[in-house]
User: Fold this.
Amino acid sequence: MRHDILIAGAGIVGLATALQLQRQRPDLKIGIIEKEAGLAAHQSSHNSGVIHSGIYYKPNSLRATNCLRGYKLLLEFCQEQGVPFDVCGKLIAAVDNSELEGLERIFQRGKENGLKGLKKISGEKAKEIEPNLECKEAVWVPQAGIVSYAAVASQYARIFEVNGGEIYLKQKVVAIRQGSKQVEVDTDKNNGTTWNAKVFVNCTGLYSDKVAKMLGGKAPAQILPFRGEYYDLVPERQHLVKNLIYPVPNPSFPFLGVHLTRMIEGGIEAGPNAVLAFRREGYSRWNLNIKELSETLVFPGFRKIAAKYWRDGWAEMKRSYFKSHFTKAIQRLVPEISEKDLVPGRSGVRAMACDAEGNLIDDFLIQSNSRIVNVLNAPSPAATASLAIGETIAAKVLEQC
Assistant:
């Protein structure tokens, strides 16, 4: 089958890219191929559903600029399309004196990124917003909110298809051939289907490095899968949390820490922790793929990461295997929550891009060459920023059309 542009991956970034391309060039034939039987099956629908403000990200980085623009575009889209959302605000809480410096650093970064209405408040003032939170100080972030990114992705797809775009499910990429005038992509359905396109876009998330390597080159980073596990607050204790409560993140560890989140569909989630997944789509500690796990363990970058963060990693493992340790992390924020108040919830897997020297890629990583655009790293806030990232990717694609 022939298309002007072929996108692999029907997650929220792939769908947003298709939508932005279609808006700019409705004359082009655009197709999306997806290996799963449904849309947004992995990172896009296995996150905490938070609309991020951009407070954490390095000023002028792609994460910061795309989050700030993407936030505005996302809210406009949800309003226009009737997707439920709630800009409820969140508290980032310093629970002891050792975290006050980190809280101040986040506060200043938010101001550098142009966020309006940020407030540094006392623990007493924080209780006026979250009565059961115990902390020394907090930062109030009024821009933060909640939404279902699965619902957002579904709406992206609906509009794309209504306007002539084509989405093909159960189409796993198995080979790519790059020519001077077109790209050929083989998928494994019906004894092999070959797709032809002027430009091919790799938005395959957890497998983005593997798809990039199909061209015979070397990807600049390898994807390391980290599973995040959630607990749900039992209904009779959900009153303990009003909206969103976050800890001050450990600056030496690349995750935001266990937090409490009101979900747009109802209920309160606690989590996630962050542990190595034993396969790229390993949503349970029992999900194991020997080949994929071996690729992770022998990768020099992972071994350097493990040596650097082993203490933090061990703490995360204990939170994964022992509910009491997970509960203690939550009790630092809301002491009234007990172990019996938490029941196992869902989990997600985050794609962390790491180079061979053990450096985690902290920003979006999008590379393009002749007729190929590879989205090699799109970490949080990719869902919030999806329409802005889609614009960025679309610009790189249209340069080659």
